[in-house]
């Protein structure tokens, strides 16, 4: 009996320690799939292009939709053709309230049967809710973890075409580093990266994808941003949507093997 009293707690202790090590050695894998974009990817998939952006993020048994594109019919068609498992959808993340990022909301709500919670910049939340009153929406103000290891940068103020609004971007905080998804980067792609690094000091930015909104910039200005990425220690970029064809061309030339295409139907796992 005395031996049992000694061994039993020791076994429990080993079980806890081993279990924690197994959890650390088996982190959740993430997969980003671009489900709506104005830049076509593999045309053999028969996907519908349209101006706007949306990405499906899978993690373990769950998933969320980042933005919803500019056409709910095209979004639904693409989700079907890509064999997206709607049952995994736990949330919809809206970067900002522009038509090319929110007009697919009816498809997102229908796919999740209205269960998915919508996270939007607080200053846009009321307007979005008025357009789609059946959703459950939370307005994001400050940086916040909306799901385990998935963060919003919080609202970042923007002045675009003399209109002031706010935008948020997403950060996946994985053990190996940070992975950033942007909608249009109206707040400035470099400012978004800086915000992510300030939220997680010492963490490396492994990957940045989405719209960088550089289509109005000249070559010198694009190259300055490319150099700033390097200075900030960004390891890999995948510009798309509103980045601009010339800017994307320059990034590809400059970044070579650290440049990725993330256009309609493309995916990336990490």
Question: Cα distance, first to last residue?
Answer: 50 Å
* Count of domains: 1
Which percent range fits the helix content?
25-40%
The overall average pLDDT, rounded, is 92
Overall CATH class: Alpha Beta
| Percent range for β-strand residues | 25-35%
Q: Examine the coordinates and then state which fold CATH places here, giving the name of the CATH topology.
A: Metallo-beta-lactamase, Chain A
Please explain how this structure is put together.
This protein has a single domain (29-269), classed as Ribonuclease Z/Hydroxyacylglutathione hydrolase-like (Metallo-beta-lactamase, Chain A), CATH 3.60.15.10. 33% of the residues lie in helices and 29% in strands. It has helices at 2-25, 72-81, 99-102, 105-111, 122-131, 189-199, 219-231, 245-255, and strands at 30-37, 53-59, 62-66, 89-93, 117-121, 136-140, 144-147, 150-152, 156-160, 163-167, 170-174, 177-182, 205-211, 237-240, 267-269. The chain has a seven-stranded mixed β-sheet with strand order 6-5-4-3-2-1-15. A six-stranded mixed β-sheet has the order 7-8-11-12-13-14. The protein has a two-stranded antiparallel ribbon with strand order 9-10. Strand 12, helix 6 (189-199) and strand 13 (205-211) form a beta-alpha-beta unit. Helix 2 packs across helix 4. The longest helix has 24 residues, at 2-25. It is globular. Mean pLDDT is 92; it is low at 6-25.
């Amino acid at each position: 009996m005395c031996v049992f009293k000694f061994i039993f707690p020791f076994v429990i202790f080993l079980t806890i320690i081993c279990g924690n090590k197994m959890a650390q050695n088996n982190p959740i894998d993430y997969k980003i799939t671009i489900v709506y974009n104005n830049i076509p990817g593999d045309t053999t998939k028969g996907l519908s292009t349209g101006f706007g952006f949306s990405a499906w993020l899978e993690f373990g048994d769950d998933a969320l939709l980042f933005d919803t594109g500019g056409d709910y019919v095209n979004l639904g068609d693409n989700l079907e053709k890509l064999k997206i498992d709607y049952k995994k959808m736990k949330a919809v993340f809206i970067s900002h309230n522009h038509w090319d990022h929110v007009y697919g909301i009816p498809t997102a709500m229908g796919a999740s049967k209205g269960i998915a919670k919508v996270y939007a910049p607080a200053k846009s939340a009321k307007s979005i809710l008025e357009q789609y009153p059946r959703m459950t929406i939370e307005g994001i103000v400050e940086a916040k973890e909306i799901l385990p290891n998935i963060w919003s940068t919080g609202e970042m103020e923007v002045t675009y075409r003399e209109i002031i609004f706010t935008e948020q971007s997403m950060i996946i905080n994985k053990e190996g580093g940070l992975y950033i998804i942007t909608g249009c980067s109206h707040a400035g792609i470099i400012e978004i990266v800086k915000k992510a690094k300030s939220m997680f000091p010492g963490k490396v930015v492994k990957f940045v994808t989405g719209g960088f909104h550089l289509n109005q910039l000249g070559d010198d200005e694009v190259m300055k941003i490319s150099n700033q990425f390097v200075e900030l220690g960004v390891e890999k970029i995948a510009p798309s949507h509103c980045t601009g064809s010339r800017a994307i061309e320059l990034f590809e030339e400059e970044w070579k093997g650290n440049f990725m295409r993330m256009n309609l139907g493309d995916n990336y796992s990490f």
